[in-house]
Amino acid sequence: MITRWRERITDAATGLFRHAPDPLADTLGHPGDPGLFGPGSVTWRLMSDSAAFVGGIRALLVQAAHPEVAAGVGDHSVYREDPLGRLSRTAAYVSATTYGSLPEVDQALTVVRNAHRPVSGTSHRGTAYDAGDPGMGAWVHNALVDSFLTARRTYGPTPVSDADADAYVAEQVRLGQRLGVSPLPDTAAELSAWVAGHPAVAPSPAADEAIAFLAGSGLPTATRLAYRRLFAAAVVTIPPRLQQAVGVAPRPGAVVLGRATTGLLRAAMGSSPAWAAALERCGEPRPPGLRFRNAPGTTR
Q1: Distance from the CA of 41 to the CA of which of 61, 152, 205, 224 falls in 20 to 30 A?
Q2: Distance CA 192, CA 58 (A)
Q3: ∠221-225-228 over CA atoms, to 5°?
Q4: Residue 221 CB coordination number (10 Å)
Q5: How does residue 10 score in pLDDT terms, banded at 50, 70 and 90?
Q6: Which DSSP letter does residue 157 get?
Q7: How far is residue 194 CA from its own chain's centroid?
Q8: What is the distance between the alpha carbons of residues 99 and 15, in angstroms, rounded to a whole number?
Q9: pTM of this prediction?
């Protein structure tokens, strides 16, 4: 019964992200390649937990608080027609850049650059945007980093020390530099202050549309309740100024329900199979005391 319960929850959760190719399908073909971060990194440990589900939702909410970024997504993305495809491609990018070998990291970045090349226009407030602009890219990248760290510190199974938080942010600067974005704050405090105080943040029609999508009304019934708890868990960790910009408000009990939901996912799914595959690629053992659902030699 426990096995069936775990399989049902895992299938429901991972089914949302199976609408894009596995970015690490060939990762074991790059033996010894540590990628951008490597087995001893804080990034590999921090990103392996189910709290990353909250971090991903939070990142998209925070990104929508920048009107020009939101306009770029609204004007050029196909998320309305292919919502699960967009979600899957975002998850694939995070997996590849976190746990991939360097060729897989560079391939993921090439895909992003190619997708961003035609993305330009003008937002509702008459400000020009270009997805290739280093400042816009920094907003997207830094929102991801800040969100995954915040979610892990709020909903993870163990505390994240200030030293580890700073190490994670400094490691992520390597990815930002490879992307060619700037500025890149290199401590946790500087990063959170930069995101919370960004001068471009403001309400926008594009953000309203994005938030309506992110609220999850179009999800399958089986996953909608859990997703809405994760959504509320993400909202409550966002700085008030950014909450106001995207029109969301924290709900009472959101942190408690968020911890319960991420705990349920953790018990069912175990640690990230991408982490296990990356460790195997580097010839490193899986950490003792953790459960991984993928067998050796597999990536999912």
Answers
A1: 61
A2: 13
A3: 120
A4: 6
A5: low
A6: S
A7: 18
A8: 20
A9: 0.94
